[in-house]
Amino acid sequence: MGPPLLRAESLQKRYHAPGWPRRESFRLEADFVVDAPRTIGLLGPNGSGKTTLFELITGSNRPSGGRVLVEGRDIHRIRYRERDRLAIHYHQSYQVRAFRKTVPSFLLEHAGRERPRVHLFDEPQFAIQDGYIGFMLGFFARLREEGNVVFLCMHPNEPFHVEILREACESFIFVQRGRLTEFPDFASLVGDPGVRAYLGALAP
Questions:
Q1: 100 — pLDDT class (breaks 50, 70, 90)
Q2: Which of 31, 111, 131, 200 could tie 82 with a disulfide, CB 3.0–4.6 Å?
Q3: Three-state SS across 36-64?
Q4: Which pLDDT tens digit goes with each residue over 27-65?
Q5: Hey, is 174 helix, strand or coil?
Q6: pLDDT bracket for residue 94 (50, 70, 90)
Q7: Rounded to the nearest 5°, which phi and psi values hold at 119?
Q8: HSE-up (13 A, CA, CB side) for residue 167
Q9: Distances (CA, A) of 109 to 81, 82, 113
């Protein structure tokens, strides 16, 4: 049996407020394993760390601690131009995020594959006309059926956003103040008091 498709191992990202002495202003912590193809819903308040998590997974943001492994490969040891062959981040309009280079690329490893295993969709824009939602749901399902890990990050502000999460995702991660809580299904997600408070009137 091979390594998990994705592992966030004691992952941390810390930010500090300007000035001296240094004061920590935000910390994201993540420790989870995705061992099989799956579509995962990611949600939480603005500023909770969702996009930071995606940037860490794709290697465009360096962790303060821990590491991200895609099929056993440390994403931050892969050459910058090849990291999207392991994990790719689509931000809203599906533009790929840029990488911040800290080590010369020739000192890093080749990806060893041509197509990404992990696909991260960061608040994609859904139109409710012309069957577009059905097209996107089919696209997410096809990526998962091809053996990939798919993350769908949403900040629901309409009832149909919650229905998209219910329809598309098999498990969920709720991010709040840099802390991650995993849920195995939609029922347990919306049954959590913290999630219901976040969803407000949108909670089913």
A1: low
A2: 111
A3: CCEEEEEECCCCCCHHHHHHHHHCCCCCC
A4: 999 999 999 999 999 999 999 999 999 999 999 899 999
A5: strand
A6: very low
A7: -115, 120
A8: 15
A9: 11, 9, 12
Tens of pLDDT, residues 101-139: 666 565 666 776 779 999 999 988 777 666 778 888 999
Task: Write down how long the chain is.
Answer: 204
For the chain, the domains span 35-202
Which backbone phi and psi does 83 adopt, to 5 degrees?
-65, -30
Radius of gyration of the chain (CA): 17
From 190, 202, 200, select the one nearest 158 (Cα to Cα). Answer: 202
Q: How far apart, in whole angstroms, are the C-alpha atoms of residue 148 and residue 117?
A: 5
Domain range 35-202, its CATH number among 3.40.50.300, 3.10.580.10, 3.40.47.10, 1.20.810.10: 3.40.50.300
Q: Helices 132-145 and 159-168 sit at what angle, rounded to 10 degrees?
A: 30
| Contact predicate 173/40, CB 8 Å | yes
Write the DSSP string, 102-129. -S-GGGSBP---SS-SEEEEES----SS
